[in-house]
């Protein structure tokens, strides 16, 4: 018996002393029992297969590098921009609000204050840039409410040297002060944009109906202009040196958004401008269309529609000019539809005690008009637009008529030529 126990003890000792193979851990069998790809088993609950994870992973959104800072996705940051070269060391910096969306999408730039006295756009851009929610935004919004801080701080349209900044883009690093500021802004801000909206108002005591001005001969700009809902769209190729013209030439579709008059804040025009950009962001897929809250009034239908109705396009526009000096008193309102021959206003000569009437040469809608003021002969008083279809608008944009050029507000106070400006001067 003792020999039996000794044998068993020796056997257990030999088994325990045998080398142990390393254990291999796995969450589920690599080759399921039964074999064959047809019987491939799904992973246990709570574990996602690597191939399924790769298919469902959303595109990566990286931080945006701008003005020597990094704006991480899902955040908003207010930066400061100054022209390079110490041009504006004594001036306040231009605020640049960057809302970097948590989801991928386009970079939409909103600029205002290129003319320092046009402040409706300043408030529009400020409101939009600070109200968008970056955690629910697809893409990025870059808002620059005041580009021309020189003019804004003085309540002036111009730069300190009386140059119009919106005639010098994209600028030059070795040109005039206007050209250098334009160059710095274009390189530091505009180059980051995928599309751009530049806000303006009427010039020199004129007011404009909220409207988009775009070069409809450019397919990318035409497509961009369709996103503003029921806002008026007016074909205008623009002038050399304008921000939107330079941006479009650089491959960045851009338009001008005109609304209201200079040197004043107009709540109705600002609200309409904000609503138009919100419709644009829905069209671009940057934000979701708002839903009508239960038990509350009706939300604007254009905001709820998947595809907003095509905007009316006013192409055949013309200015009605004053033929005599005196005091202009308007008899129509901005946005009003008029008939051919209808009286638009009158010019009173207080010295001769005479009145002369201004008549509409064509039927249309008042999309711009001068405020009541003292005028001289030739002053552009009323801007009339004739509604047409998009197809007709594009066709006439490609083959314009020989009449007066359509587009920007007339500048009745031209700046003197400076031979040193070279290619920067228009």
UniProtKB/TrEMBL annotation:
<dbReference type="GO" id="GO:0016788">
    <property type="term" value="F:hydrolase activity, acting on ester bonds"/>
</dbReference>
<dbReference type="InterPro" id="IPR053138">
    <property type="entry name" value="N-alpha-Ac-DABA_deacetylase"/>
</dbReference>
<feature type="compositionally biased region" description="Acidic residues">
    <location>
        <begin position="406"/>
        <end position="426"/>
    </location>
</feature>
<feature type="compositionally biased region" description="Polar residues">
    <location>
        <begin position="390"/>
        <end position="402"/>
    </location>
</feature>
<protein>
    <submittedName>
        <fullName>Succinylglutamate desuccinylase/aspartoacylase family protein</fullName>
    </submittedName>
</protein>
<dbReference type="GO" id="GO:0046872">
    <property type="term" value="F:metal ion binding"/>
</dbReference>
<feature type="signal peptide">
    <location>
        <begin position="1"/>
        <end position="25"/>
    </location>
</feature>
<dbReference type="InterPro" id="IPR055438">
    <property type="entry name" value="AstE_AspA_cat"/>
</dbReference>
<dbReference type="Pfam" id="PF24827">
    <property type="entry name" value="AstE_AspA_cat"/>
</dbReference>
<feature type="region of interest" description="Disordered">
    <location>
        <begin position="390"/>
        <end position="426"/>
    </location>
</feature>
<keyword id="KW-0479">Metal-binding</keyword>
<keyword id="KW-0862">Zinc</keyword>
<keyword id="KW-0732">Signal</keyword>
<keyword id="KW-0378">Hydrolase</keyword>
<feature type="domain" description="Succinylglutamate desuccinylase/Aspartoacylase catalytic">
    <location>
        <begin position="104"/>
        <end position="281"/>
    </location>
</feature>
